Amino acid sequence: MQETADTTSASSVAAPRRLAVLGATGSIGTQTLDIVRLFPDRLTVQVLTARRNAARLLQQALEFRPACVVIDDPEGYRQLREALRGTSIEVLQGEQGLCACVQRPDVDVVMAALVGFAGLRPVLAALEAGKQVALANKETLVAGGALVRQTLRRYGGTLIPVDSEHSAIFQCLVGETPASVETLILTASGGPFRTRPLETFDRITPDEALCHPNWSMGAKVTVDSATMMNKGLEVIEAHWLFELPAARIQVLVHPQSIIHSMVTFVDGSTKAQLGVPDMRLPIQYALSYPERWEAPHERIDWARLGRLDFETPDPARFPCLPLAYEALRRGGTAPAVLNAANEQAVQLFLQEQIRFTDIARLVEAALEHLSEPDAVPSYEHLQEADRRARQYVLELAGVAAH
Ligand SMILES: NC(=O)C1=CN([C@@H]2O[C@H](COP(=O)(O)OP(=O)(O)OC[C@H]3O[C@@H](n4cnc5c(N)ncnc54)[C@H](OP(=O)(O)O)[C@@H]3O)[C@@H](O)[C@H]2O)C=CC1
Ligand SMILES: CC(=O)[C@@H](O)[C@H](O)COP(=O)(O)O
Ligand SMILES: [Mn+2]
């Protein structure tokens, strides 16, 4: 748990923080660059990466002039090399490029905003180089939480949460000690299907699932919010970030997404962090911490808001949530299996190859058949668990692997 933040330090005289933005072309990545635009004297960009969106990455590179860009797609790599010829911007490719760029001596902070298991290896590389990682990519901690903790202990890097709930908890914990904490309360919007008749769930379409009531996000996390697997992944993320057992991490449905999460302390007091649902707030806090920087983000209009509502999550409606608790209870490779099966199932659902209700069914089957005990699975062990779970889901869904 962090020490009390010093909010009085004179930030204007400090050298700018030099960022590597992994997943720069996505929802969190582009909002991170919005924050850089707001604070050009305090933040600079050294690295930008994408999977295949070469056009957007090129546009960003020409605006921010980083030292290096990384792209996964071979054709995108060829295009970027051609387009950036004659500039000082280095172009790298693939996972090797990602791991090299996060270890550069001219990078201070790595914004980890890839989606999925692909985020784990570069985060480990960044922590092995002792970097500060602003972590949006929750799948990193879900699949590899024990390994990430071990890497933090060995190399002394730091993790600052970006996920809105974990940022809220992190902010509530400023000035507190671990012994004072009783329970973490993760709030959940309940997604678009909180009140939809349960018997219609097998007719849910991708367009309906991609319509989040409060947040505009990438496709994968949006579908996860609709199944509430997102909250399950966040329970596991909170377990590894704040080192508390599952029994002390609760989930509470709060449809307005104004309270981003809460902490109840041993004296019965509860602290909450509130704000409009705008990811630029937790992104900025992760980049400014331990300072707070003045910014023109929207403020809550309390009178217009009027009320805040709460309810208990319904496990019959959202079976992915108890599955995530079960994976955490099993430990070993179980959370990595849960995560990979979910990633694969969400992809199949978005491609209209399975129904919405199949997501939980496939994840449950993979969890049942594939999890293995192991106190701290190695990266290679996790990678194999991830591969096998994806393959298993494809087979069970009757889809040929590509
Ligand atoms: N969006 C949000 O508001 C929130 C997101 N998060 C978490 O943050 C992470 C990012 O989410 P989000 O920004 O929504 O995702 P997006 O899908 O919008 O963006 C993902 C980014 O990662 C890149 N990428 C995807 N897969 C790979 C890969 N295999 N290798 C290399 N790069 C890859 C994409 O490149 P390209 O564009 O070229 O495909 C893109 O830049 C997720 O873990 C999510 O759960 C957490 C809280 C809120
Ligand atoms: C913005 C953010 O942090 C998302 O993870 C968000 O929490 C999703 O909303 P749900 O509460 O519906 O999962
Ligand atoms: Mn979240």
UniProtKB/TrEMBL annotation:
Gene Ontology BP terms: isopentenyl diphosphate biosynthetic process, methylerythritol 4-phosphate pathway involved in terpenoid biosynthetic process
Residues in 1-deoxy-D-xylulose 5-phosphate reductoisomerase C-terminal domain copies: 159-242
Residues annotated as domain DXP reductoisomerase C-terminal: 274-392
EC numbers: 1.1.1.267
Repeat recorded as keyword: no
Superkingdom classification of source: Bacteria
General function of this protein: Catalyzes the NADPH-dependent rearrangement and reduction of 1-deoxy-D-xylulose-5-phosphate (DXP) to 2-C-methyl-D-erythritol 4-phosphate (MEP).
Stated name of the protein: 1-deoxy-D-xylulose 5-phosphate reductoisomerase
Organism, scientific name: Rhodothermus profundi
Gene: dxr
